[in-house]
Specification:
Blueprint (H helix, E strand, L loop, with lengths): L1 E6 L3 H12 L4 E7 L2 H11 L3 E5 L7 H9 L6 E6 L5 H9 L3 E4 L4 H12 L7 H9 L4 H12 L4 H11 L4 H8 L3 H14 L5 H10 L6
Parallel strand pairs: 1-2, 1-3, 3-4, 4-5
Helix pairs in contact: 2-3, 3-4, 7-11, 8-11, 9-10
GO molecular function, one term: DNA binding
InterPro entries: CheY-like_superfamily, NreC/VraR/RcsB-like_REC, Sig_transdc_resp-reg_C-effctor, Sig_transdc_resp-reg_receiver, Tscrpt_reg_LuxR_C, WalR-like
Protein name: DNA-binding response regulator
Length: about 220
Amino acid sequence: MIRVVVVDDEPMVCAHLRTILGSAADIEVVAQAQDGAEAVEAVVRHRPRVVLMDLRMPGVDGLTAIERIAKLPEPPAVVALTTFDADTYVLRALRAGAAGFLVKSTPPEDLIGLVRVAADGHTVLSPVAARRLVAMSADGRRRGDDARRKTEGLTERETDVLACLGEGLSNADIAARLHLAEATVKSYVSRMLVKLDCANRTQAGLLAHEAGLVKR
């Protein structure tokens, strides 16, 4: 069972998300919160696998909550909720440790599938969205230079795997493309996260875009 906490300052949004997710046999909404402070408390109390987090809330906002949750032992995957798919606030959330983002208008069947993806530890972020977010970053050129310096220390195979992360591929998909065992890909990813000082696959994927490794 995938345990989920829903966070939004609009009760109707929480109710809507709870109804959609509750229709899936393998998903349980264990709590909802209306600001970032409540969200952190709910995560500590209920230990969910996934948190759907609104970013703009009064009091403690979603970005601050994501930063606090990322520091917890064995933190859940936090997926940012936003109204617009090109939002610099979303980029800040991803760099703070969010596993991806969802637009609030996401169709119900897609929402359920993406929660499952997040629960499995994969990126909830399309390559198109990643490119758009990186392109609109005010400090994009500096970040691009920093990203290229970081990736200089990777082996050729590690660079290939990182580029695949930038495309949002799963370990199984990367293994098939690069003709590697899935366990080998998992090992590459774990090592790269440490080398690149990235908290999760999403941050590594963004770094791949910033470094210009993702061509499609």
